[in-house]
Amino acid sequence: RPPPSPSRCASGRSEVAIQSLPSVPTRIWDHGETVADKVTLRAVLADPSARRPLLAAAGLAVGNTAIMVQPLQNYTTDIMVRAGASDPFFCALLAGLARLAGVCVCVLLVDRVGRRPLLLAGAAGIAGCYLLMALAYARNEPSLLAAGLIALFFCWAGSWAGLVWTVSAELLPDSLRASGMGAILIVFWTLNFAACQEVERVMQALTPQGAMAAFAILSVGAFAYVATCVAETQPEGEAQGGAEQLRGISLHHRRDGHSHGTDSHSGSDSEWDTHVGRGEGAGPTAAKQSGGGAAHRR
């Protein structure tokens, strides 16, 4: 027999609503038994099976720093001024718009293409942009340098800038996600602070074109790391499974109603199918209309 309709539970009959809770399809009860289980970072590091996702996520944070785009965006105007660009501030504006466009592209493609392909494409694009900038420095072409810098920010914003945190959170198990992400953020911002302090010295020591070539090599290393150590984390199966579960719940209650010959409860059956199976008419008004329609049919 299906549980009471939403309109009946919402009509002030708290006893009926409480009694119907165990029959409502939900995963809250199973989840509640494991909420109290706590896992510390020390215990995770001692367990090889739990240590792998944490190290994989930490590697993404290190790779996001190693590609050096985050530190370089703080020096966009200075780079264009030193390169002799005619309008460095306009180039900085275009770089900001490129970052915005990259984020929009990432939002559109992340669930269609997947996380891992976007990270790989982003690392490859970043490496290519660095090589283009190295060539621009070698030939002393400010316009080519500006194009490479703008494309660099677009590739980074469309992949590594946001996906690193998405993939890291999806790699970590539920019991470790909060503390693990905290540790990864500490690692990233510590390395990023050091990189921001040293980026100018690196460009002076290696020459600008040499530094861009070195950054391209680091980007290739980030590409290799994702290709070999990071798996796809897109929860596509979970979304499909949830939809199938809802359809199965609705079908189950319909079959129960017909198999037990519950013609006297056809209004409740209709209301429950409407609420769970189609997600429509969840409010009391729609439920009453559904019940009234069933009563009229009787």
Describe the overall structure.
It is a single chain. With 298 residues, the chain is mainly alpha-helical. It has two domains: 41-234, Growth Hormone, Chain: A (Up-down Bundle); 235-298, no CATH class. Helix content is 78%, strand content 0%. The protein has 16 helices and no strands. Helix 5 (48-66) packs parallel to helix 12 (177-206) and helix 7 crosses helix 8 (88-113). The longest helix is centred in the middle third of the chain and has 30 residues, at 177-206.
Question: Main sheet, how many strands, which sense, barrel?
Answer: none
What Rg do the Cα atoms give? 28 Å
Shape: elongated
Q: What's the CATH first level of the largest domain?
A: Mainly Alpha
Strand content: under 5%
CATH architecture of the largest domain: Up-down Bundle
Number of domains: 2
Assign the structural class, choosing from mainly alpha, mainly beta, alpha/beta, alpha+beta, or little secondary structure. mainly alpha
According to CATH, the homologous superfamily of the largest domain is MFS general substrate transporter like domains
Count of separate DSSP helical elements: 16
Order of helices and strands: HHHHHHHHHHHHHHHH
Instruction: Say how many strands there are.
Output: 0
**Roughly what is the average pLDDT, rounded to an integer?**
74
Low-confidence stretches: 28-36, 238-298
Task: Give the oligomer, counting copies of the same chain as homo and different chains as hetero.
Answer: single chain
Q: Could you tell me the CATH topology label of the largest domain.
A: Growth Hormone, Chain: A
Helix content, binned percent = over 70%
N- to C-terminal separation? Answer: 19 Å
